[in-house]
Each structure stands twice: as structure tokens, then as C-alpha cells.
Design goal:
Layout lengths: L3 H22 L4 E3 L23 E3 L9 H34 L5 H8 L24 H9 L4 H35 L6 H31 L19 H29 L5
Antiparallel strand pairs: 1-2
Helix pairs in contact: 1-2, 2-6, 2-7, 5-6, 5-7, 6-7
Keywords: Signal
Protein name: CLUMA_CG004869, isoform A
Amino acid sequence: MMNIKFLNYYLLITISIYVMSSNQAEGRSIVYASSEENSSGRDESDKIDFLNLQCVVERDKPKAPLSDSALKSRLEAVLLSCRSALFQTKDLTDNYIKQIWGNDVTVHRHHETWERRNIPWLWPDNKPLQKHFRGEIHAHHLKELLETNWTHEKIFEKLGKIYQRFQRIGVGVQIVNKWNNIASMEGTHLLNTEQVNISTKLFKNATEGIHEVLCQIQAIFYDMAIDPKTDMDITPFVMDKFIRLNHWLVYREYENLMDYSHKLLKIMTDRKEFSK
């Protein structure tokens, strides 16, 4: 069996090649700001401001919008980032459930138990994603996506909505990150040290996944001279009760959105007729 670390490394290298090749083809030089470390080398991923994210450092202004082939490469790079994020978190999610909720609790059973519990604050306009956790896109919505004529306008409109959803969930993830950091330093009666550690790892992975996808979408918008619409109507949800459950609900929305985005981008790139 191929080593998991090697597979993960291969996916990340593939993503980098996609982005670099599309940039070079268009004569652009786009640099992504660091998401994890400051100049001192300390991890500051919990301090990322997803509402005012500046991923792209401008070096050369785009001379023209992305060509169809370059846009396709960029979309495929976002798709690969979603796939990589899902690949990295699957086993970690399963272990997280067992550590926090008990060794005999499976992800499926856990999800069924709490499926009807939600934090609508995580949804733009209080509208849930048309897909259940680790399930398929709802049939009526899938039909709509499959029948869509994926013009550039439609693609950018959908990317904008995905961007806003990731921003909102990113704010929720950062609330959990801050709680985990305090719990790591000061301790908590709610979780033991091992449980805090796996929660910290899970949500740090989520932070990195959100940052990666937002930055790639932001770069596409930059090259197309589009300003992403930031979801500023966010009053952070106060998670001072039912901590374990609320943390799970935040993570569930993150993984579900990442899976939805992966499936959506696959539909876009398969059905859009890109010129050479």
C-alpha cells in the first residue's frame, strides 16, 4: 500500500504544478501570503482574519483576463485542494469522534445522533448547504447543477457563494481554535490533554484547508478583475455552552462544504466547454 504521507505530498505537488503552469502561461507572477507562520516562525494560524484575507501579493498586473485553458487549470487546482483537504482529514475525523465521544462511536452513528442540530449562523442568509454530511448533493440541486450552462459569469457567481460560505465557517473554526489554545495552556474540565490535542490538530487542518481554497479563489478573481464579495454580516456565535457539540457542528459544516465544493468543481470542469 502506498504511504499516506507520500500520497499527500504528491497531491500538494500536483496542486502547485497546476497553479504555477497557469500563471506562467498567462505571464503572471502571483504570490500567496503565508497562512501559518509569522517572521518569528511561531504558529499563528488561529489569528487569520478570514473576513479580510489578503492572499495575493500583486507583482505584475494582469494584462488580460485568464484564458479558458488557464481558468480550467485554476479551477482544477481548487478541486485538487478540496480533494487533498478531505483526504487529510478523514482518518483524523474518525479518531476525533472516538477520542471525544467514545471508542464505540462511529462517525456515521455520531452524525445520525446530531444530524438535526445546527448552527444556522454558519450559513449565509441562514440557508443550509444542499447536501448532507458525507452524502451526495441533494437530487434536485444536483439536477440543477448538471443542467447549468457554465458560462464564466455562472462560474464566478458560484465561486463567490462558495467563497462567502468558507469565510463564515472560517470564523467559526477560529473561535474553536482560540478555545483550543486556551484549553492547551490553562487546561479544561471538559476535555483531557489528549482530547484537546486531537481537537487542535483537526481544526488546524480545517484552518489550512479553508485558507488554501479561499486564496485560490481570490487569485482567480484577481486575474479576472473581480472583487470577491466578503460576507461582512457576521456576528460570531457565542459557544459557551455545549462546547463539544458546537465544536463538532462547526467541523461538520467545514467538511461538508469542502466535499460539496469538490463535487461542484468536478461538475464545472467536466461540463464547461473550455477553448484551447
